[in-house]
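Q: Could you predict the 3D structure of Helicase C-terminal domain-containing protein?
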Amino acid sequence: MGTTPEGSSPRTLAEALRARSEQELTALLRARPDLLNPVPGDLTQLATRASTRASVVRALERLDRFTLQTAEALAVAPDPGRYETLLALLGGDDGDPEVEAALPRAVEALRTQALVWGGGGRLRLVRTARELLTPSPSRPSPTGLGPTVAEATAGMSPGRLQEILAANELPTTHDPVSAVTALTSLFTDRRRMGELLDQAPSEALTVLDRLVWGPPYGEVTASPTPPVRWLRDHGLLLPASPRTVVLPREAALHLRAGRAHRTAEPVPPAVLPARTAASGRPAGVDEAAAGQAYTALSTVEELLQDWHEGGPPVLRAGGLAVRDLKRTAAALDTHEQMAAFWLELTYTAGLLAADGEADERYAPTPVYDEWLTLPAAERWALLADAWLTATRTAGLVGGHDGKGRALSALGPEMDRSAAPEVRRRVLELLASLEPGTAPDPESVLARLRWERPLRPGAGAGSDGVVDLRSRMAAWTLAEAETLGVTGRGALSEHGRALLGPAEGEPRPAADRARTAALTTVERAAAQSAAADALAPLLPTPLDHVLLQADLTAVAPGPLERPLAETLAVLADIESKGGATVYRFTPGSVRRALDAGRAASDLHTFLATHSRTPVPQPLSYLIDDVARRHGHLRIGAASAYVRCDDDALLDEILADKRSQGLGLRRVAPTVLAAQADPATLLQNLRSIGYAPSAESPQGDVLITRAHAHRTPPRTPPVPVPDGPPAPDDTLLSAAVRAVRAGDLAATVERKPAAEPGDRPPGPGGGLPRSTSAETLATVQAAVMTGSALWIGYVNAEGAASQRVIAPVRVEGGFVTAYDHTADEVRTYPLHRITGVAELADDPA
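A: Sure. Here are the predicted structure tokens for Helicase C-terminal domain-containing protein:
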């Protein structure tokens, strides 16, 4: 840290920041990027902004548990506090080697983030942080401590104070201040306090035991019991209200052996292997994860293929209706929560969106068609990266927001800005174990709670759940297994590659929060590495099936896309698993014929792609359906049936199942119908006939699945968790600008030339000089190369002060290097309010 002159201590936070090096200011702005928007004009503005309530709350929420415990202990210590006092509050009277080893890091973390300033002998907590962490009746402290003796006796009558002193055998005083000092001295003296408690009734000690670790407040009746009366008489319980008493902080600390917290946690909990984990087989983990990854790809394709011609409608408020979610879950043969995960994943990856039509529906996007053409490993890497970086949280589906409204899949209220950081951190903790080792989930959650503890009253999300981060971590473990990032609970090799380059040193929690997301280039490299690691583990697509005599075909593995698409039209999928079983039926064969395939084409296709001979029953089925296919023709009149065989038309008219179609003969080979062509076609097929549709010109209509796509859509943009992390270039420029602005505000100036003029200075506003004096001073600075302090008013009327080094003066303009902006700028002379020379030019 930057140091102040020997024997002195900074009086304000601004002075402490002024003593910092550029590297230390950069570390502050990197840890608290909200201080950069906009860039502060000088270090005083930076200190003021760093002390605002919103910024301090944000910084406190990103501290790990021990660093936060350190800040809480400092909040109950005298202000300013000594390092030794802080160490005693955290380690207790007996000391704690782990606390002693970890405390310097915690204090340095607080000082880096400008939450603490001052040297070891005068540690000061930023005023706003002290207000937030100091115990009060309305805002209990995690320490469980109450007010000090001085705070608890404020407003107490002088006579009552003297009675307490007399009960403790202390000399009476003439004023309340000295009485409070005497009582505080007694409670902080270990020997004298021990002697006092030795005199207390055992029941009184029992009362103190109930209050010592908090909450320190207790209710009393108008006639308290003798033990409580003894405690009140001796000041060990002080009145907080007419019916409430409080244990003063100094007495509680004595009873706690000096500890501010029941349990200090200087060391993060270790992530432990699962009790049932079988480590030592990373290859088995990778294979299991690859199997899950392949299943994930198949599930996404099945989902979007089911919505190929347009999916369910979009609710008026956005999202998917519960009944449509249930239908989707049934179609995917899974439960609703898992179906919501797949829907959110495809939506996040940009493969699914609303079509934007008047009757808005969900449908695949054009990106889906491009995604299908990629190799399987690359398709998985895109899905996994979208999941890892998304703020949309599928686990919330089925819950309620802060107003009691149900949260629906694909709805607008599904973003949680902390989700990417939680997912990445969970995977980083898994990566810290030996390859092939699954973690104990509870140890992972305990570690995350240590790294980002929740302060009382903080962290409650819009869904009303306080510990949402722990729930997100649990969802992450389950989703990573489902997606194939982990296998058997352990992080796979391709999952490890998805995280990007391994970190050398562990980073503080505040830094992890700022750098959770990789850059675009790093993400692309991580996706490529993950795809390369996964590719050898995925099965190679097959170009053949095994036809069987029971009118089924067995695909012993994944099929090449053209083969799979054609087979899906020609046959119905009967079962899935390690092998897929397709069944040929009259309806499926007719579907292929409707799509424009001839019987000869189907025979050739099966013979080409079957490793077994084409069974005779299957050949007969194709020929039989093809022979009857298109014998009847249906077209639009309202609708008609045309057939060269009038006996077949007689048969249809006589069939009772066709009575509802309103058929009547209009010619020997033509029947007219009241139903529309599509209904007529569907009903005759259900009766058992094989009609085909025809065009107005009498040609057979070939029916193919209509692929409904949305217009081009971009994936949903993650909701940022606060301001974006600044890069090194921005941080460097911001530090230079703040330094230059601080120089302009604090540098020593020469006195004004005229005795009557007000000397410019930090409290004198902008410098003032006449136009002639300004021009002469600037011209002289050009020749001498010296720097000047100027006042400047821009075109919008905003005034500012700057330190410039003039280079050239011509045409009513001065060109100079602006130390404040760290660049060369040109200023109109008429907008310069005045100039003043610096006592010492800036380096």
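Q: Anything worth pointing out?
A: Residues 282-306 form the longest helix (25 residues).
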